[in-house]
TrEMBL record:
Identification of the protein by name: Adenylate kinase 4, mitochondrial
Signal sequence coordinates: none
Gene from which the chain derives: AK4
Record: residues binding a ribonucleoside 5'-triphosphate: 14-19, 125, 134-135, 198
Domain annotation Adenylate kinase active site lid: ranges: 125-160
Keywords for this protein: Acetylation, ATP-binding, GTP-binding, Kinase, Mitochondrion, Nucleotide-binding, Transferase
Subunit structure: Monomer.
Entries under PROSITE patterns matching the protein: ADENYLATE_KINASE
Source species of the chain: Hemibagrus guttatus
Lineage: Eukaryota, Metazoa, Chordata, Craniata, Vertebrata
């Protein structure tokens, strides 16, 4: 079997992790696992972890590390034959350490996007809650205003994407993420990308991954988690 490829994408809310992960999944045939989407699936299915996580997410808090690591590692253990890209996990140093002890990562992509750009993007972000599909009224609008392209269901805005909640949320993200970024930098696998536009960052990420991903990753892996 060819060597599997394991990657993580880091960045503050609005930095484009979900958008870029979709492109990576489509172009390179990796599985994209988003912690936020996976939590929402667990909440909808009322699993034990989902019921527990809901109480934290409703308060706008992070899900405790032990709940999150158990949930994500058990999902990753089902994906041992696949290459993957994680988005939203690990979020804390404790989570990163647990992930490290279970898997060896090949690449960590870190998105470094100016604060003003993040605020502007999140103001225009609309999501389809059931699937986690993300739109932006300027960058990638839905075909019909306010409606999900696939299901036809209404789109909503996250409460915590409102400008008043944003600055505190982004500051908190930075404090928690710094030791995670430092850990991956020290391991020599961190690749940082800075720009205001996803379309300008994407060619660099694409060429980085082209040099790292085994070329025989087949179409069989072109399965997305959502
Ligand atoms: N790795 C994690 N550790 C702890 N809590 C998490 C983790 N991933 C997600 N959560 C929680 C925090 C959020 O309240 C909720 C939804 O996550 P997510 O969809 O990533 O949205 P978000 O608004 O925090 O970030 P983003 O805008 O980057 O997607 O789930
Ligand atoms: N204007 C603009 N919006 C973008 C760009 N890249 C992503 N977005 C939008 O910005 C919002 C945040 O992107 P998302 O991928 O959800 O980021 P995440 O929170 O890091 O997962 C979404 O509404 C995207 O559609 C970009 O280059 N320009």
């Amino acid at each position: 079997m060819s060597k599997l490829f394991r990657a993580v994408i880091l960045g503050p809310p609005g930095s484009g992790k979900g958008t870029i992960s979709e492109r990576v999944a489509n172009s390179f045939g990796l599985k994209h696992l988003s912690s936020g989407d996976f939590l929402r699936e667990n909440i909808a299915a009322k699993t034990e972890a989902g019921v527990l996580a809901k109480t934290y997410i409703e308060k706008g808090a992070l899900v405790p590390d032990h709940v999150m690591t158990r949930l994500m590692l058990s999902r990753l253990e089902e994906m041992t034959r696949h290459s993957w890209l994680l988005d939203g996990f690990p979020r804390t140093l404790a989570q990163a350490k647990v992930l490290n002890s279970a898997f060896e990562l090949d690449v960590v992509i870190s998105l470094n996007i100016p604060l003003e750009t993040l605020k502007e993007r999140l103001r225009h972000r609309w999501i389809h809650p059931a699937s986690g599909r993300v739109y932006n009224m300027c960058f990638n609008p839905p075909r019909v205003q306010g409606v999900d392209d696939i299901s036809g269901e209404p789109l909503i805005q996250h409460e915590d994407d409102r400008p008043e909640a944003l600055v505190a949320r982004l500051r908190h993200y930075k404090d928690v993420a710094k030791p995670v970024i430092d850990l991956y930098r020290a391991k020599g696998i961190l690749h940082m990308f800075s720009d205001t536009e996803t379309d300008r960052i994407w060619p660099y990420i694409s060429s980085l991954l082209s040099t790292k991903i085994p070329t025989d990753l087949g179409d069989a892996q072109r399965v997305r988690t959502h």
